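Format notes (please read before filing issues)

Several people have asked whether sequences and structure tokens are stored in separate files. They are not. Every record keeps both together, in the order shown below: the sequence lines, then the token lines. Line labels are part of the format and must not be stripped during preprocessing.
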Amino acid sequence: MPVEIKVDPGEVGFDAARLRRIDRHFAQYVEAGKLPGWLALVARGGKIAHLATHGMRDVESSAPVRPDTLFRIYSMTKPITSTAIMMLHEEGAFELTDPVSDFIPSFADLRVYTGGTARAPQTRPAGEEMRIWHLLTHTSGLTYAFHYLHPVDELYRRAGFEHGMAADLDLAACCDEWASLPLLFDPGTAWNYSVATDVLGRIVEVASGQTLDEFFRSRIFEPLGMTDTGFAVDRADADRLATLYVADPQGRARRHPRHDEAFAAAFELPKALSGGGGLFSSAHDYHRFTQMLLRRGELDGVRLLGSRTVDYMTRNHLPGGTDLENFALGAFSEVANAGKGFGLGFSVLEDPVAGKVPGSTGEFAWGGLASTVFWVDPAEDLTVLFLTQLMPSSTHPIRSQLHQLVYQALVD
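Then the structure lines:
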């Protein structure tokens, strides 16, 4: 379903000419070959004030990005999985302090890496049980194969997880495999981006008695009218699906070398449903999701979460109120994450001055591997969505620049 502008920008505090700076700036990325195409959506007060598309959803066939284009949202799946978990939490299915092993027995008796190599790792017993809140906050000690920073990352690659989920395993088997590998650290002692949200997806299945796709469809997507979102694309919508691109060494967009395989796979439900990165979606659908979050769990009379639950999810849960620059491992310890904490499924902006980009205290956000991003700013009654298909998301400073360009357009 397409989206459309719902209000004159001036009626909700925007300068229309300044909003168009977003379009001009990111059009330059397309003209320089750095992005194939993109969609930008800015809403305030629940109404879309700015919607723009530029470039191609498929460069080779000159098929343009349209408002109804379908995108791989990768890690923007994570906030949806976190929402599902907290819906079950509200029903009393578990406490956040419950051990993960209560739902996935293989997570008992975990071990932590202490030295050696991927071929001969040295480990010790974990000093703390992994709990559900560790998964929600990425303080579990799990990792991702694509980090290429630690011997445990290599162990994940050796186990078949280099390109996402292992090809021959379902979600339950993936979780058992991850549980058999050493942790980077004792749960709760550091922050590391990881498969934690995929493990949460399995807990959704065990706690609800539904497969993850069934829970998402019946409890989130259908109630919110998110008709384009799922783990597979309907073949009738093949011409709406954006092509996946990767950056070459100069930062230019090139068709993904595994494009044909990825395109064919898009129409089949995967064996392992990835709550950490497996969904396809559209601007219409993800806008609906962000509006539900902005309205503290409710949209158009449908309530998924209690207002206090959303407030709790979007607070900084890192120990002592620290930020990702000081508590995260790897790339997330860089200055770009100064002033940002982490809640239950979202980054949380605690100090815009430390972050060196305009924004509001309490803004929460996340992005995806193919350079997609969203944020919700309750203080400004604002949501922003940017969709494209370029891997990896670190190629260009799209997210910080988008912040600059959105906030300079607010003039009330």
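For reference, the curators noted about this record: The chain has a mean pLDDT of 96. Residues 16-31 form the longest helix (16 residues).
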